[in-house]
Amino acid sequence: MTAENRSASATEWVMQVRAFRAKKDIKSALAVCLKGLASHPRSMDLLFTYGELRIIRYNSVKKSDHLKKALISFEKLLRINPHHYMANLLAAQIYFKGRAHDRAEAKINAILKSTPNDPRAAQVKQAIQKARTKKEKAAAQEYEPESERIETEKLDGLQQVMGWVGNLEKVSSGNIERTGA
To answer: Which of 20, 21, 19, 86 is nearest to 47 (CA)?
Structure first.
């Protein structure tokens, strides 16, 4: 008897999803998982399994919609249990992939708060920091010519003002005192 034919528990739905997943039938696994979530929308196991299946689909077809749906599922799960290790880790990786570094780091920090020496979380945190550094360097290089132009304009303006002061000094022949300031 399948989970669809009777009022099944969330665990029974997950077992049926796993059977399809073992056969590498991800589309059917997703369909069954969605039916299970319709019956048990707050099941952490079904929410996590759905997120995993969406990641698997993304890896095979590379449509970002799958990652978005996985992330939504993980976030729902994390509202129920904010300390769910794998949901935090996978959500962090999706946020990182989407260049939402602050959100990714928040998820990693949630893991590191309870397990400070976690190697996977440390690895993702290091990747986030590396990406930020790279982004900051690129931004600095991008804005450097403009900042140099602004500095040159300031100098040109300052030289122009100093020229006016010099001209005033010549015109008034000593009536203006120059201070060291």
So the answer is: 86
